[in-house]
Design brief:
By secondary structure, this protein is of the alpha+beta class. It has helices at 3-36, 48-52, 85-105, 149-157, 175-200, and strands at 55-67, 71-82, 113-126, 129-143, 163-171, 205-214, 235-247. It comes from Sphaerisporangium album.
């Protein structure tokens, strides 16, 4: 084999190797470019549905109104035991009538006295040994003039040994008006908090998305003052609301 032939063969092989290397480089570069290019799944932009959702802020509002009760509710009753069922029932009716007369004489209106419990049952020392029959009648009296509170309590205490005083509570006659005032105060409190958060985030308060009242909104009750058994003291009506506002 002559020198020229060997030289041609070497050049041919080098050329082929260069072509292969160039092709491999192109494939590698293409793979790198494809890997670096962001596809739809690798996007960091928010989804269209998330971008369309309004910004919201949730707050809790509290409203309180103080008031002095003007009503007193007294729970009283008669409880006794007799040897016979008929005697027990007759005696409890007589005692309840006497107690009612005492309440009326102390200034309670007839429409404000009502029976709320009546029971009659046998009592046993150890079954089947019967020791008698127990009867009871519970009553509730509403005192609308608190200046008569002392007289009513004294009348109950003097109505007999078998009379029971089971509780005193205070109320207000304008309870619904107080609840409305407390609701308005709670809403204003929630609105003020939402506006503060909106200002902190550079937004404005939009519409109310949700509004809920927490707890029981029934007629408010007031407990007795500690220093006197029949002093109404002062109570607080409180309303709590949870609100969600749109931020625009």
């Amino acid at each position: 084999m002559c020198f020229m032939t060997v030289l041609v063969m070497l050049v041919t092989r080098v050329t082929r190797l260069s072509v292969v290397l160039a092709a491999a480089g192109a494939v590698f570069a293409g793979a790198q470019a494809a890997h670096a290019a962001p596809g739809p799944a690798a996007s960091t932009a928010p989804a269209a549905s998330a971008a369309g959702e309004p910004a919201e802020v949730g707050v809790v509002g509290r409203g309180s109104v103080q008031a002095t009760p003007d009503l007193m509710r007294v729970n009283v009753g008669v409880e006794l035991r007799r040897d016979k069922a008929g005697a027990a029932f007759a005696a409890v009716k007589e005692g309840a009538a006497k107690l009612t007369d005492a309440l009326l004489a102390a200034g309670v209106a007839p429409r404000d006295v009502r029976t709320n419990d009546l029971s009659l049952g046998a009592e046993y020392q150890k079954y089947p040994k019967l020791v008698g029959y127990r009867a009871s009648q519970g009553m509730e009296a509403l005192v609308r003039d608190l200046s008569k509170a002392d007289a009513v309590i004294d009348a109950v205490a003097a109505a007999g040994e078998e009379v029971r005083l089971s509780g005193v509570s205070f109320e207000i006659s304008r309870s619904q008006a107080l609840l409305k005032e407390a609701r308005a105060a709670a809403y204003r409190d929630a609105q003020a908090k939402a506006e503060q958060y909106a200002a902190l985030t550079g937004r404005r308060v939009g519409r109310v998305m949700k509004l809920e009242e927490e707890g029981d909104s029934g007629p408010p009750r007031f407990t007795m003052a500690e220093k006197s058994s029949i002093s109404p003291g002062q109570g607080t009506v409180t309303i709590i609301v949870r609100a969600i506002y749109e931020l625009v």
